[in-house]
């Protein structure tokens, strides 16, 4: 009997622990999804990002205590917002420095929002668009914008953001504190820019999201080529922005571009993490549903006027994804799109990509001539794809000693181990044939 009783108690404990863990997982998943909305509402109400983060965390802690007992509320986001607001008010009341400020905030809040949706049992208001533009304000340094966006809108912890930027957590913590201080001291407004400002400000927001994605697509350094977690966070942020700004074609273009590129993620590396070039990828591994969604967004991005750079890049990626193999890819159309992109955003990196496309259309000699024209471009120094592309074209032309020199140059500049391993293999094909 004692054994059965002990067994029953163990089963009950296991069930309770499982329930607690499932509730905790539910809270964490929901909070990660709702974090941006919650912080945006709190910053809008109290004007303090630090305070908003602290009381949001306290609200989650309260949820982990109450929800396993009382059950998950019908509107969990609204429950968290109401709890966080109350904690913020309590904290401000205890701080005499903020006493007068609290009174002003309450008056302003009542005038602007006499019946809070959360207090009335409604859904959590979505004010993330203001937070996007606050985090990506041009007054902030570029790295700080990306860090703050990942911290506040993607919900990454400071150590996770530090890993994304390849810096120590203490350095990243200082960077985030500095960005928040800049917002506070410069009185950066928590608002969506007016229609006259939006064309100048939106590209900065899109650039922050795309920078996060590119770090996920090809990591700056480390043992892995890809960081799928970062790429997926960037896509999630772009989806939010697309819902909030459905009429902005470049938002559609950016989301489409990232989906069309990310659709190939499973085929880009082999079982050991090695690089698999486009011509050798198993296209059956490409995510067709993601490609179809991306193609639809390309149509939206290119309809209704002159295209933007993200829309054009998305169109290029769509042509790659639609082809059954490299040989049947519409290289003339891709070169034409790069011509448009060079007009929209003239840069040596775009010129490098165009040269590679010309090599596929007209042969390696034509591509190499264009690369030689870029040889003195200072912005390509230290950019390993330039010597790597040049090495491949020289290899295809049979100019093996020159190709070996270019491969060694690229090898010295490559930052991730899969890229270095790929370049070592290519170099070995020249130096140790057979």
TrEMBL record:
MF (Gene Ontology): DNA binding; sigma factor activity
Task: Work out whether the entry's keyword set contains RNA-binding.
Answer: no
GO BP annotations, alphabetical order: DNA-templated transcription initiation
Annotated RNA polymerase sigma factor 70 region 4 type domain ranges read 135-183
Gene3D superfamilies linked to this entry: 1.10.1740.10, Winged helix-like DNA-binding domain superfamily/Winged helix DNA-binding domain
Sorted keywords for this record are:
Sigma factor, Transcription, Transcription regulation
| InterPro entries membership | DUF6596, RNA_pol_sigma70_r2, RNA_pol_sigma70_r4_t2, RNA_pol_sigma_r2, RNA_pol_sigma_r3/r4-like, WH-like_DNA-bd_sf
The RNA polymerase sigma-70 region domain is annotated at: 31-96
The answer to whether keyword Cytoplasm applies is: no
What are the DUF6596 domain coordinates in residue numbering? 201-301
Similarity-based family? Belongs to the sigma-70 factor family. ECF subfamily.
Q: What is this protein called?
A: RNA polymerase subunit sigma-24
